[in-house]
């Protein structure tokens, strides 16, 4: 609180603040992205028919060297849907929190959030609620295909949060995960093995989703 009170123009970063920022960047930027790749590989191994569809979409979009342009990458609907569905089932940040800066009345619900009160938003529970997603625990990327996106209810899909404090790395993260899948899937196939746990088990490490073990086999195509 003391450091926030200083005039921003005169503010200099201390060594502790620099270390804290670097640490948050690794945790917020690296752990989340690698988790998404891990859970995505896991679901593709369990759903080979979806992996086959994705493979076809990828090989029909890359050039003869197996490379892809930024514009082309953004245009692959199934790749986008597979990653969105992975982030629905496995949101790295399982709950969001906010602290009210002022009293806030929630329309005609009769509920007022008082100034200073903390509000927890249970992202994981919302993402897996039958109220918003049919067969909520099932991996079904088609929910996020362009023809179905209009069925999504606002604020029920929050893998990157929402509002002024949402994730600043979202576009970069999505591009990174897409590019990694394009390069891996055109050369390898993810497969279920005897060591693949179904269902996954989690550590009690809220607010981050952390499975005890995500093992998938990899076969060369
Ligand atoms: C799949 C990858 C990622 C996921 C799922 C993710 C998720 C999130 C979520 C849920 C929040 C909190 C948003 C809120 O409270 O409304 C957040 C904040 C943040 N993320 Fe990400 N993130 C990812 C990748 C990245 C990357 C690559 C970076 C940086 C290079 C990054 C940097 C940040 C930062 C700095 C914040 C804090 C923003 C603020 O408080 O104003 N994230 N992220």
Automatic annotation (TrEMBL):
Q: Does the keyword Phosphoprotein apply?
A: no
Q: Which cofactor does it need?
A: heme
Q: How does it sit in the membrane?
A: Peripheral membrane protein
GO MF term (any one): monooxygenase activity
Location(s) in or outside the cell: Endoplasmic reticulum membrane; Microsome membrane
Q: What are the leading ranks of the lineage?
A: Eukaryota, Metazoa, Ecdysozoa, Arthropoda, Chelicerata
Organism domain of life: Eukaryota
GO CC, any one term: endoplasmic reticulum membrane
Enumerate the transmembrane spans: none
PROSITE patterns from the UniProt entry: CYTOCHROME_P450
- What keywords sit in the KW lines? Endoplasmic reticulum, Heme, Iron, Membrane, Metal-binding, Microsome, Monooxygenase, Oxidoreductase
Q: Which Pfam families does the annotation name?
A: p450
Record family assignment: Belongs to the cytochrome P450 family.
Chain residues that bind heme: 167
Question: Which SUPFAM superfamilies does this chain map to?
Answer: Cytochrome P450
Tell me what this protein is called.
Cytochrome P450
